[in-house]
Amino acid sequence: MAYVIPKENYNGQVLSLxxxxxxxxxxxxxxxxxxxxxFEGEVPNRPVIAYEIQDTQPDDWPETVSNVFKDVSNDPVTxxxxxxxxxxxxxIALRLVSTHPDRGDRSPEDAAKTVKQVLDAINIxxxxxxxxxxxxxxxxxVAAAEAASGSNCIIGKAQEGNYxxxxxxxxxxxxxxxxxxxxDINLAKQLNILITQMGFDKSRLLTDPMCxxxxxxxxxxxxxxxxxxxxxLLQNDATMQPPIVADVGINAWKTKEVxxxxxxxxxxxxxxxxxxxxxxxxxxxxxxxxxxLLIIRHPKSVDTLTKLIDELS
Amino acid sequence: MALSGIQIFKLLPKxxxxxxxxxxxxxFAMKLAQGGVELSACPDVSDEAKNTLGEAxxxxxxxxxxxxxxxxxKIGGETVLFxxxxxxxxxxxxxxxxxDSLSDKELTDTALETVNSEIDRVGQKLSVEAISVECASxxxxxxxxxxKLIAEKAPxxxxxxxxxxxAIIEPAVKxxxxxxxxxxxANDDNAEAMAAIAKTHSVPLTVRAEGPEALSVLTEKVxxxxxxxxxxxxxxxxxxxxxxxxxxxxxxxxxxxxKPLGYPVINFVLRDDPYLETNVASIAISKYASIxxxxxxxxxxxxxxxxxxxxxxxxxxVPMQVDQKVYKIGEATADSPLMxxxxxxxxxFIVSGEIENSKVPxxxxxxxxxxxxxxTAWAAGKFIASKIVTFIKESGVEDQVxxxxxxxxxxxxILSGALEDKLEGWKITVGPxxxxxxxxxxxxxxx
Lengths: 313, 447
Hints:
The complex is a heterodimer.
Chain A: E1 16-19, E2 26-29, E3 48-54, H1 63-66, H2 76-86, E4 91-95, H3 108-121, E5 126-129, H4 134-147, E6 154-158, H5 163-172, E7 176-180, H6 185-197, E8 205-208, H7 218-233, E9 245-247, H8 248-252, H9 271-289, E10 293-296, H10 299-312
Helix pairs in contact in A: 2-3, 3-4, 4-5, 7-9, 9-10
Chain B: H1 5-11, H2 25-34, H3 47-57, E1 63-66, E2 73-76, E3 93-99, H4 104-115, E4 119-121, E5 124-126, E6 130-134, H5 140-153, E7 158-162, H6 166-175, E8 182-186, H7 191-201, E9 205-208, H8 211-224, E10 230-233, H9 239-255, E11 266-268, H10 274-286, E12 291-294, H11 299-312, E13 325-329, E14 338-342, H12 345-358, E15 362-367, H13 374-379, H14 385-395, E16 405-408, H15 416-422, E17 427-430, H16 438-446
Parallel strand pairs in B: 3-6, 3-12, 6-7, 7-8, 8-9, 9-10, 11-12, 14-15, 16-17
Antiparallel strand pairs in B: 1-2, 4-5, 13-15
Helix pairs in contact in B: 1-2, 4-5, 5-6, 6-7, 10-11, 12-16, 14-15
């Protein structure tokens, strides 16, 4: 019985998109096989890692990761430049946390100003994230999209409860858009359909099926992502072919395992290493399930994931 | 090639004796057809049935034990490529590699580190199950002494004998054969000698070759020499080769019924960079390894890899549940707030995590709703006023808190009236609809 390489016949392909200005733009997606399986298909683009920064000094990041940025995190422009110039970031994800009604309630105009300042200070591609407050994001992301007009950013996240204004703004100002739904392949599909029905081209969309951290529902995200990929590739379901984004840092760095001191749980070992392991394993699992764009906080995590992607490519 | 459940049933004794663990011969036959059990589980099966069923009934990936007795660990036996298609059955073994050239003290330390690696997570006891003893000395007596020392100091652990010199490995195999160690490995140069040792001492054997094709040729050869319990090493060096080779091996076995690769897989992921090693190991865990060998087992690394293994091997069709009880979060006292939710593990994790984030010590009453989330449980009639009242009364929480105020999830605000009627003397407060609003909600209460 002779060995034959068991190649899968895929009918579909992950859509590819670029973001960022002209020569600084990066591309993601475009593969016509499951993640990194180059023996049976084309994998034209590596996954991209974006550093997460915030528009206000983080007060809910564990010290392991907040200390790394303590000299730059009081100003988003300084922070963004630090990521670009010192950490050699490929991309930055700016989270407009302080627009949340409970976190400062800053106005859409304030947010737009921050976006402009950050964009002026960097030449790498920018992802603009709201505070995930459904009503507030509907106005904040519209103002942010306008402020970033012409910079070919990714903006998000559009959810079922607020997608209409955000989609319209992304359309008007030529941005890419993250559509987020909560851990359900059917909801992800439905939202993509609703958004494309507004005239938004599917080749400009990214899907966020909601990232979960290691130990906190990771397996749900993992399987939803795998199913989305298989639907796009095997069944050629066009609504399931946008690249996938995983918002890893925010989820990994709020677990008990990354903040409980070693003295509380001696059997858990060193706190710093535990934090990096938590963020990177969450990210690596997302890569295995089909993620094209990772949002990460810790420089050691980015460094580790870069080496891992080198090994996988 | 594959027989249906009915075809298999016709060949069974039809006594419904239940010795196989199934209620009827038909149920056993159905399971056999799916590859979820082995024919040998039937003690009364006729030779004729054995011959007929033989290969046809064998699961696509062979299942066998490493180690012996209560500590024995089953590997192999997987039936799907994606966990959402059914589930992954036998969680992969984590192992640490140790060189025989180390001092007795260093060897003992590693053995004890492995023995003491156990961590309890959501009710499961997780640990590093195996030690790979590598022959770096090139000295047969030194190797045997190191193996014996490790075996003695780590009594419950699976031993992997990592040495490809047949002359050196044989005394070590002989000395701990009763522990059913795994030999690593037979390759193109030593296959005959290694297979003979494995056969003589009835221990499983790893077969190593460069890539799945060469590997399939070698496993056939070794099997032809009478060794049935094999583990595969495709020689994968980097993460891409681990992913691609493991994928090809599992696909060949499951989708093509290709027997020469129908065995569990071992991956060595040793790296100088501990974070990189941990992440390469995580790829092996998600993508089809049955044994993952590490260079070191720091506690942080163990916790992260145990947790991933637990996540990936969870049954997707059975909601993960936590125990029904009133959980204390932070240094809660009689004056701390009391919140209510259901026992779906994800719900519990998210709600308890947000309460911790708030830094407001609290009580969280978790009610058994068969692992359903709040809205689903409400819709299914499991999270309704009368049942909540019974749970609160029987939980004894009335004696734990002084204020008699119960905070219910915002999504079931509709229950507040009925609860106030039925829970005499209690105040019902409607909490946030979404867990991420809990910190703000709790902080506002304490001012």
